[in-house]
Amino acid sequence: MLGGHLLHGGDYNPEQWLDCPEILEEDIRLMKEAGVNCVTLGVFSWAVLEPEEGVYDFDWLERIIENLGKEGIQVILATPSGAMPHWLTQKYPEVMQVQADGRRNLPGKRHNFCYTSPVMREKITALDRALSKRFGRKENVILWHLSNELAGNFGDGACHCELCQSAFREWLKERYGTLEELNRAWWGRFWSHVYTDWEQIHSPAPHGEYTMTALTVDWRRFVTEQISGFCTMERRAVAEYSDLPATTNFMDTFKNLDYNRLQKELDIISWDNYPFWHREKDEVPVAAWSAANHSMMRSFQKKPFLLMESAPSVINWRNNNPLKRPGMHMLSCMQALAHGADSVQYFQWRKGRGSYEKFHGAVLDHKNGSDTRTFRDVSEVGARLPGLSSLLDGTVNRPKAAILFDWENWWAVEDTTGPRLDFCYPDWVMEHYRAFWEQGIEADFVDMNADLSGYRLVSAPLNYMYRAGWAEKVRDFVSGGGIFVTTCFSGEVDDTDLCFTGHHPLEDVLGIAPEEIDAPSEEFENSFTYSGKDYPAHTLCAVVRAKEGTELLASYEKDFYAGCPAVTKHAYGSGEAYFLAAASGIAFLRAFYKDVFAEAGLENALGAELPYGVTVTERMGKERVVFVMNFRNEPVCVDGIGTWTDAETGEACADRLQLAAFQCRVLTKQAD
Amino acid sequence: MLGGHLLHGGDYNPEQWLDCPEILEEDIRLMKEAGVNCVTLGVFSWAVLEPEEGVYDFDWLERIIENLGKEGIQVILATPSGAMPHWLTQKYPEVMQVQADGRRNLPGKRHNFCYTSPVMREKITALDRALSKRFGRKENVILWHLSNELAGNFGDGACHCELCQSAFREWLKERYGTLEELNRAWWGRFWSHVYTDWEQIHSPAPHGEYTMTALTVDWRRFVTEQISGFCTMERRAVAEYSDLPATTNFMDTFKNLDYNRLQKELDIISWDNYPFWHREKDEVPVAAWSAANHSMMRSFQKKPFLLMESAPSVINWRNNNPLKRPGMHMLSCMQALAHGADSVQYFQWRKGRGSYEKFHGAVLDHKNGSDTRTFRDVSEVGARLPGLSSLLDGTVNRPKAAILFDWENWWAVEDTTGPRLDFCYPDWVMEHYRAFWEQGIEADFVDMNADLSGYRLVSAPLNYMYRAGWAEKVRDFVSGGGIFVTTCFSGEVDDTDLCFTGHHPLEDVLGIAPEEIDAPSEEFENSFTYSGKDYPAHTLCAVVRAKEGTELLASYEKDFYAGCPAVTKHAYGSGEAYFLAAASGIAFLRAFYKDVFAEAGLENALGAELPYGVTVTERMGKERVVFVMNFRNEPVCVDGIGTWTDAETGEACADRLQLAAFQCRVLTKQAD
Amino acid sequence: MLGGHLLHGGDYNPEQWLDCPEILEEDIRLMKEAGVNCVTLGVFSWAVLEPEEGVYDFDWLERIIENLGKEGIQVILATPSGAMPHWLTQKYPEVMQVQADGRRNLPGKRHNFCYTSPVMREKITALDRALSKRFGRKENVILWHLSNELAGNFGDGACHCELCQSAFREWLKERYGTLEELNRAWWGRFWSHVYTDWEQIHSPAPHGEYTMTALTVDWRRFVTEQISGFCTMERRAVAEYSDLPATTNFMDTFKNLDYNRLQKELDIISWDNYPFWHREKDEVPVAAWSAANHSMMRSFQKKPFLLMESAPSVINWRNNNPLKRPGMHMLSCMQALAHGADSVQYFQWRKGRGSYEKFHGAVLDHKNGSDTRTFRDVSEVGARLPGLSSLLDGTVNRPKAAILFDWENWWAVEDTTGPRLDFCYPDWVMEHYRAFWEQGIEADFVDMNADLSGYRLVSAPLNYMYRAGWAEKVRDFVSGGGIFVTTCFSGEVDDTDLCFTGHHPLEDVLGIAPEEIDAPSEEFENSFTYSGKDYPAHTLCAVVRAKEGTELLASYEKDFYAGCPAVTKHAYGSGEAYFLAAASGIAFLRAFYKDVFAEAGLENALGAELPYGVTVTERMGKERVVFVMNFRNEPVCVDGIGTWTDAETGEACADRLQLAAFQCRVLTKQAD
C-alpha cells in the first residue's frame, strides 16, 4: 500500500500564498486536524519553479516539503507541464497547440502545449530532472505525479501543428509500410481519396477531411501514442535521480486518450472523480457511473488505484453546482475504497482567491476557514480511514465478470456514419454496467487486448469494431466455457474500419446471422416479451436470422420484423453466447442479466437480494471485506445476508443489515 | 425514351474492387438476376483514371464497360470532377475552395474545388476529352453524367477565393455597367455602403457584409452562373468525340443552385431522391414532398426525367435511418414513374467496405450478398419495369396547374430581414403543393421566367420578389382567364430587393391594398371562418384593404384587425385572383383549393374523391396512363373512379378500386 | 428644455432620396402634418458627405437643413462615424476591427472600426470639424449626435488588433504600475499565469485566455475607456466651431460599454428604446423592463433625457415582429415622458427602399404614405405633446429609492465560474425593479460610484463584486438611517475578482455570515414562508448563519438547510439591512418590497393600491405631474387616489380614476 496506509489529502498550492506565512502555518495545523496525511505539490507551478528560462527557484518548495515532513505528511510531487509559463510561450511560440482548424493558440488556460515540440520536451525534461535531483529522494516524497489530466485541453486533446503532421506521417509509415497498403486499409478509392505521397496526409480537420473513419481513428491512435511518449519522457526524466513510482491522473470516460495504452507507462493508476451528485433525487444513475469509472481504473492494472482528486464540497464548472447533502461526502469517499482505491485525495486543500477555480470546493473555505460543514465532513473521513488501512492493505476486487470498454471501438463507432449518428458508446456500456451494479455484481472493464481467461462472463455492448484477434479470443473464451453477451451493431468492421464481408465474424458462436438494422423513428418503437414481461425496443433494432439450435428468448412483436429474434442464446463449445438484437433500457437489462448471472453462477458478496439504491463490492485479501452502500437518502434494510462482522464497530451482523441514509458499512469475514 | 426502355440500375464503383475479379463477375451475374439494365460508372474515379498528373489509366474501365455490354447492360458515364485526386490538390492548392470566412480548405471530402480555377478547368477538361475519345461512341454507353451533385459541398456551394472575387466583379460590371447603377440598385447609401471602386466589392462573409440582400442575392446568382459555366465547359469537353446527351444529377429543394438556370445546359434532367420514409406513421408529408420534387424535375424541361439515385434500402446520413418497410421500395420507385421519371436508378449497386458511405444502402449487402430482403425488393422492381416501358414511352404528365417556385425569390425572402426572420420558402410552397397532391391535382413548378399560357391555375405562395416582367405576366394571365392565387408578403421588392413604392404591383389584379403585416406572437394567434369552418391565422397576418368589388371569402375574427380580409377573391378581366392574407395550415389549404379547383374546372384523373394518403397522377401519351398510389400502410378503396383497365394485369376496374398497403396500381384507358 | 419644447420627430435620411425632389418636399409637408418638430440628420452619411478622401460635399445637407428651418423644424446633427465609406476601408484596412479570434473584418455592416486607429481618428476628426464649421452655428441645429450606438457591432463591441493590444498594455501599466502588482491582483500564480513581460498580455480570446475573470473584466474596462476616448475626441472636434451640447445614443441594458463611464463625456443622455410589446398578452414584464431602462437613462445625470429612437410601428430584427396594437404607440411614448424623457423621436421618418432596415417601421410607409394607422398614431402623439411641454419643462423624477446596476459587477458575475454558469445579471436586477414598478415606486439606477445620501432605500441584487469603497459607503448609508437590501452571492470579490477572505465585507451590517451556497438541481427546489405565504427557493440558495440580533423573516423549509435563514433583517446604526438568501421570483419580491416600502415610508404618487398592469410616476417641478399608465388592453379603475386635476382635459379627478385600455393620463396638483 503506497505510503503505508490509506492516503488522505489532496492538491495543495502553497505557491499562491508564499507571501502569507500565517496561512502556510495554519495549513499544516489544520491538515493535522482534518486527518490529512498526504498532499500533492507542484501541479501548475512551472512559473514559480522556473521564473525565467533556466533559472530554478526550488527553495520555497523544499521548505514546504520539509515542514510537511516534520508533521508526518507525505508528498506526491507533480511535474508542472500542465501549464506553461508565459516566458516560454513568448520566446517559443511553437510550443503552443494548433487546433484542428489550423489556428495556433495564444497562451492561456492549461494543457495548451504541443506534445511533439522539441523545445517543450527539452525545457520540461530539464526541469523534471532538476526536480528529481532535488526532491527525488526526500523521505516524505512518495510518488511522482506526471503532468496533470493529460490531453485535458477543453478540446480534442490534440495538436495539429506541422511538427505533429510530420510525426503522424512517420507513425503511419511505421504502421502501414507502403501507401498502397494504407490506401487499401483506408479504402482510399472511395471519393478518389488515394494518397500518392505521404505528404498528402493531414490530420482530420473541419475544413478538410473528417469523413474517413479509418483516418480519424488512426489519428486518435497516433495522438494517444504521442502523448504516451511525452509521458514516458517525463517519467524517464524524474527517474534519473529517483526510484519513486510514477502516475498521472486520469479522468472519467475520457475520449481523447486510450488509457489502456497510456497506463502501460505508469506504476500506479490514479484518477479524478467528479460525479454529479444530486442531479436528481434518484442517485443511482450517477452512483453507477462513478462506480464504473472506479472499476475501470482498477481494471487497467488489476491493482488498487489512487483517487487523486475529488471535490470536498462543490465544483464550479457545471451549469449548476449543488452542495453535497449530508452523508454524501463520506459515501462518495467510501465508494472509491469499495471499488479498489487506496486513497481519498481532494482537489483542493484551500480555495485560491482568484482565477478560474476560486469557487471550486476545497477543504478550507475563503471565509469560514475550518468552521464549516465541509471541514467537518472531511475530518470525519480523516478519522475513519486509519481504522480501515490495515484491513484493506493488500486487498483488491477480483470480479468474475468483465465488460468490454475499448477506446478504438469507441472512436470508430462514434465517428462512423452508420444506422444512426448519435451513438454515445459510454452510455451504451454504462447502462449494462448499471444492471451489474444494481445486483451487486462487480465487473472489470477490459479492452480487446485483454486476457479473458479468468472470467466467467464477458459482455461486449455495441462492439462495432473487432480488432485483429478479438473474434478468435471470444471464440476460445466461449468454447472454453465462458458466457458471452453482445448486442446489435457489433462485429461490423476491422481495425481500419473495413466492413467484414460474407459473414459476421462470430456467426458460429452467436448462432445468428444479421441481415438488416433498423434505426426506427419514435413512432415506430417496437417491443418484445422476455420472461413474461414486455419491454420496448427502439433506437437500433437488428433484424437477424437465428441459426439452427439457437434459442429464441424473445422476439419482436411489431412491424414487419415481428417474430424475428430480439434476444437469443446459443451454446458453443462449453459456453454460451447471448445476442441482444435491440436497444431496450435498464428495465430489460436488469431482468436479462439476473438470468445470465444465475446461469453463470455469479452472485453478490452478500448472496442477498439488494433493495434499489444499494450495492455491494468485495475486496479480497486474507479476509473478505465487503462494502455495503446505500445511495438512497433514507434508511434501508438488506435481508438474507448471512453472518458478518462490522469491521469498524465489531458488531455481529446476521441475516439483516440496517443502513442509514447514504450510509456505507464495511463487513468482514474469513475468506473461505 | 433514353436507352429504349425504362432504366433500372444505379451507381456502380468497380474501381473499389479491381483486385477482386470474383466480385466483378458476381456483380454482372446478379445485375442480370435483379433486372438491372443500366449502371453509372466513373463518378469519383479521377484518382484511378488519372493516377498521376497526365497519366491516364482507362483500361480497367473499358473492360468493365465491355463486360457489361456483353450482357446488355447500358452505361451512364460520369466525368469525375466530383472529387479531386490528392496529387492535384497537393501540386495546385489553388484548386481548393475558399470558404466565406476566408479560409482555404484542405483536401478531402468531395466537391471541394473552385469552379473558377483555370488549373482545375484545364485538368478536368483534358481528362473529359480523353474519356470522350475512348468511350464516347461505345455502343452501350448512353449518357454523359457531368460531375455529381454540383455545389453539394456540405456548405454554401460556393468558393470565395480571389479568382472568384474577380469573376464576381466582372459579372457585376456586365450586369450593372456602372457603379452608379449598382449603388442605386443596391440602395448603397444606406449605412454608407456606396462603392466607389469595383475592387471594394466582396462576396458575403460572416466577418464582412451579409446584411445587404441585394448583394447576397447577386452573389448567389453569380455562383449559379459560374457553376453553370463549369458544367457547360465539361459538356463541351465530352462532346468533342461524342454525340451522347448529357445530364448532371440534381438534388431536392437545393438552395445553392438555381436549377432553372442550370437545366439549360443539359439535354435531360436527372436527380437524386432520398425521402425520409417512416419518419412518422403518417407518410403523407414526406410523400407529397417527394412528389413535389419529382414534379419540379419534370417541370424544368416539361419532359420525362431520370431518377438517377435513390436508396435501395437505408441511407446513412440522417440521425436515424429506418429500414424501408415492405412495399415502400416498390411504391417509392413507382412514384418516380408516376411523376414523369423514365428510370429507377440507385445509389449504389454494392456497399463499399470502407469510408463515408459504407453503410449507405445498396442492392448488395456486405454480408448476405443477394440473399436479402433488399435484393428481392429490387428484383421485383426489375421484373415490373419492363412491363411498363412501352406503355410509358413517349408519355409525360401535362398538368393544367402550376406553382411558382423561384430560386431568386427563395434567396431574397430568406436573406431579408422582414416581418420575421425564420422564413422557410420551400415549406411554404410545399404546403400548397400538398393540398394539390392530396386531391390528385398535379402541378408543374415554374419560375418567373415561365410561360404561363398553358395553365388554368397558377399559385404563387410567399412571392416576395417580383422579378422584372412578372407582374405584367400575371396580369396578362389573369386577364386572359387564368386563376391566380397568392399570399401575404408577396410583391414586396424588385430584382435587387428594392421595395416597390406607392402600390402593390398587382393591386389592380388582386383587388386589395396591403397596409400592414403582423407577425404575431403565439398568444396572439388569430382565426377566420372559411366556408363555415374555423381556421387559425398565425405566423404572418397581412392587414389589407379590399378594393371595391373584391369578394371577402373570410375575415379575421380577433384583435384590432378583426373584420379585415383574410381571404379574398377578385375578378380581373376574364380571370380571378385569390389572396390569402394569413398563414393558416394544411387544413385550410385543403378546403380552399378544393373550391379553387372546382372554379378552375380541375379534377383528378379518376374524377374521384381520394381517401387520405392516396393520390393519382397521369402520364399522357396515345393512351392515358394513371398511377394510383396508396401511401398508407393498410388497404384502402377508392370509389367513383369510372372504368379503367389495370395496365399490368389486364383486369377491368370499374367504379371501385382496391389498393393494398403501400400499393401502386397503373390504370389505363384510351385518351379522349 | 432642449429646443424649447418636447421634441417630436426622428432619424431622417434624405441622402437616400436626393434624386427624388418630390419626396423631399413631401417629407417636410408631412412632418408638419404629423407634428414633427425635430429630425436627426447625418447618421451613416459619411459616404455622401465625403464621397472621396478629403473631398466634402455638404451642400445637399445645407439645403435640407435650411428647408427644415424654414418650416420651424429643428435638427440634431450626427457625426457619421457609425459606418465607414468603402474608400476608407480600401485604402486603410487597419481601420477595420479585428475580432477576438484574431481575424480582421472585411468592410460592411456598421460599427466596424477600430477605436484606436490613428487613421480612423484623423479622418473622422477632420470631417467632424468641417461639419462643425459649416453647421455648428446654424439657427435650427440644436444638438450634436456623436456617432451612433457606440460598440453596437453585433459582437463584443471591441477591436482586438495590435494597436488595441498595445493600448491595453499601456492602460494596464497605468493601472497597476508593475507586473508584480498585476500578478498579485490577477492571482497570476494559478495555472502558472505569471506575466514577466507586458508584451505577454493579450486580450481575452477563444483560442487563448478567457478563464481569468480579472483579465476579462479589465479588458472590458479598457474597451469602455477606449471608446469613451473616441467619443471625447469627436466631441472636441465638433466643439471647435460650435457651442451646441452633445449626446450619443445609448441602447438598453448594453453590456459592451459601461454607460456610467461614458455618460461623463456627454451633455445630455439619449437612448434608443425597442421594447418587445405583444410578446405575450401580459405586457407587464416588457413594460417594467422598458421603464427600468428609461429610469436608468435618467439616473445617469439625474436629468431629463432624450428618447432618440423608437419604432413608430414594427421593427425588423426580431424573429417575429408584431404590429403595435392600437393605443400602444401613444402609451409607449407617454411612458418615456413619464420616466423623464423630453422627447419622442423615431427611427425612422421614411422607410428606405433597400438594404437591411427597409422593413423597419417608419412614420412613412413604402406603399401607403401617410394614409396609414401608423401615421395617424404618430400624428396623435404630435398633437398631444405641445400641450404637455410647458407642464414638463424643468421637471424630472426624483425617486427616494435606488437600485444598484453596476457594469463591472455585471461583467464579473457573468464571467466568473461560480455556483452556476448561467447568471443573467440584468434579469436579476430587473425582477427587483419590477416589484417597485408594480407598486408605483420609482427608483434610480446607480453604480458603486454613486452618492447614496439622497435615498431612503438602496437595493443591490446579486452584488457579487464590491468595488473599493463600496462596503464603507453602504455601511455609512445604513448607519445613517438608510434601508439596504441585498441578496446571496454578494460581496464575494474585490475589483480584480479576488475573493474576500475571513468575513463578508458587510457581515456587521447584514447580521449574517454566509457559509455555503447551493445551486440546487430542479428536483431539489426549496421553499420558505414569508408573512404567511409559501414561496419557492431555487437557482441559488445561500446557507448562512444569522448573527445575534438578526431577525429571521423566513427560513428554508426543506433539505438539510431547513431552518436556516432565507430572509433576514438586521438593524445597524439608525438603519436596517435585509438579506435575501435565495432566488425566489416576482411573487415573493412583490410581497417583500411592499413591507420594505412601508418600513421606509415610501408610497406611490397617488398613495393608492395599484391594479395589476397599472403604474404611476411623478415628475417634480413647481407642480407635481403624475403619469398614470395602464398597460392592460382593457379598462381599469384606480381607487383612493385623492384629488387631482387632469392636466390635459382640466377635469377634476377625485378618489377614483378611470383608465381606458393602454391609456396614460397625466394628473397634476400643486406641490406641497
Brief overview, please?
By secondary structure, chain A is α/β, with parallel strands linked by helices. Helix content of chain A is 31%, strand content 21%.
What does this structure look like?
The radius of gyration of chain A is 26 Å and the shape is globular. With 672 residues, chain A is α/β, with parallel strands linked by helices. In chain A, the strands form 5 sheets. A 7-stranded mixed β-sheet of chain A has the order 11-10-12-13-19-18-17, with helices on both faces. The first copy, chain A, contains 18 helices and 25 strands. Helix content of chain A is 31%, strand content 21%. Chain A starts with 6 loop residues before the first strand and ends with a strand. The mean pLDDT of chain A is 97. Chains in contact: A-B, A-C, B-C. At the A-B interface, strand 14 of A face helix 2 and helix 4 of B.
Which strand order do you get reading across the main beta sheet of chain A? 11-10-12-13-19-18-17
User: What's the total helix number of chain A?
Assistant: 18
Low-pLDDT windows of residues of chain A: none
- Taken from the alpha-carbon principal axes, the silhouette of chain A is globular
C-alpha end-to-end distance of chain A? 24 Å
The radius of gyration of chain A is: 26 Å
Q: How many DSSP-defined strands of chain A?
A: 25
Q: Pairing-aware structural class of the strands and helices of chain A?
A: alpha/beta
**Largest β sheet strand count, sense and barrel closure of chain A:** 7 strands, mixed
Strand content of chain A: 15-25%
